[in-house]
Amino acid sequence: MRLLLTAAAATLLAACASQPTKSTSTATTPSAKSYSFVADPYPSTYQRIPSPPVVITNATVLDGTGRRLDGAGVLMQDGKIIAVGNDVAVPTDAIRVDGTGKWITPGIIDIHSHLGVYASPGVSANSDGNEATAPVTAQVWAEHSIWPQDPGFLTALAGGITSLQILPGSANLIGGRGVTLKNVPSTTYQAMKFPGAPWGLKMACGENPKRVYGQKGGPSTRMGNVAGYRAAFAEAADYMKKRKGGDTGKRDLKEDSLAGAINGDIRVHIHCYRADEMATMIDLAKEFGFRISAFHHGVEAYKVADRLAAEGICGALWADWWGFKMESFDGIQEDIVMVDRAKNGCAIVHSDSEEGIQRLNQEAAKAMANGRRIGIDIPPEHAIRWITANPAKAMGIDGMTGTLEPGKMADVVLWNGNPFSSYAQAEQVYIDGARLYDRHDPKRQPKSDFMLGQDLLRNDAKQGGAR
Questions:
Q1: What is the pLDDT of residue 301?
Q2: Which of 126, 136, 183 is nearest to 157 (CA)?
C-alpha cells in the first residue's frame, strides 16, 4: 500500500511539473475574439455603374438639408456629389443636362416596402413576406425572400426611388430582419444590397399578431403580445450576456438578431397604430435597453408627437390611410404635419404599397395640403426631407445618402417641375451618378426579366390568343 501511495505521489508531482507555469506577462496571452451578433455571411456585392461626370444646370434644387437654390446646378463625378450651387465648375468631359424649368432633389427613399418579398404578380407562389409559423421569428431575414425580378422595383425607379428598406410583414410579434437595397436592376439581391447599411428588426404590435396566432396557441390578446416581447428579449439579454462573457456554445440565429438590437447594431422598426401602444413599446425598449428607430403606420402618432420627438423616434406614416380596421380608426390627415411640427420631430412618408411607392412625392404633397388647410404651411425645401433625409436617418444611411451634399452618393432625381405638383414626373433618375432611368429614352427604361415578352403575349391575346 505504501509503495502504491509513493508511486501515485510521484506521478502527481511529475504531472504538476509538466504543466507550464502561469506567465506574468499579458503579451503572450492571446485575446479571445469577440462574438459578433451581426456578422454577414451574405455580404453586399453591389458595384456602382461607371459613368462620366454629369452636371445638371439652371434648375431649382432642393438639397434635403432645408435649402432651396434657384437657378442652381449639381455636379456628379465618380459616383459622388461633387458640388451643389449657383456657380458649379463643369469638367470638360462632363455630360451637360439643361435643367431650365425643372427641379432637382435627392433620390427618394422608402423606409417601408415589401417589394421582392411580396412580388408581382401577387400570387401565393410570390408570397414570402410573413414567416407565420411562430409569434417570434427573429431568425429570418427578409433578404432571403427577395425576388430581384419583381417588376415593382423598376416601376418604383420611374417614380424616383433610389433606395428602399424591405421588411418582413406584420403577422408576428417579431418578424425578422429587414434589409436596405439600392434600387438597381440585378440578378441577385446581394448585388442590390446597400453597402454598409445596418439591418432593421421588424416588430408589430396590436391586432395583427393576436389575429394570426389567436387560434394557434397565442398570443390572443394585447397583454399576450407584450408578454411575448418581454419573454423574447429577456432570453436574448441572457444570451447576449453569456456570449459577451466568452460562452462558445451553440449559435442561435434568433437570439443573434434580438441581441444585435439590444446591442444597438440592428435598428428596430415597429408596426404600431395606437398612441397607447407606442407608449408601451417605448417602455419596453427602455426595459431591455434597445432603441426604436421608427414607428411605422402610426395613425395616432399625432397624439404622442412630442414624446416621439423627445425620444428621437421617427414616425413613418401614410398621408391618408385610415379606418380599415379598429386600430386605424382614429387617424387624421394632418398626422404627418403634427409629428413634423414637434420640436426635433422626425416625420417620414412611407408606402407599404407596390403602387404608393411610385408616387411618394404626391403622398408628401397630400400632407403639405392637409397642413395648409389648418394653417401650417410647409415649404417644398422642408417637405422633401420626409422622403429623403428623414428616412435615411431612421435607416442609418444618412451619412451616405438622403441629401445633396459633397461626398455623398450621387443619388439624384431630375423632375419636370415642382415634385409636389400632381403633374410632377421624374424625368431622370441617377444612382451613384449613373443615369439608370430616363423618361424620354426607352433604352434607359429597364424592364425585369419577368416582363420581357409580356407585351407580345398581350398582343397575341388581342389577336385571338397566344400561338
A1: 98
A2: 183
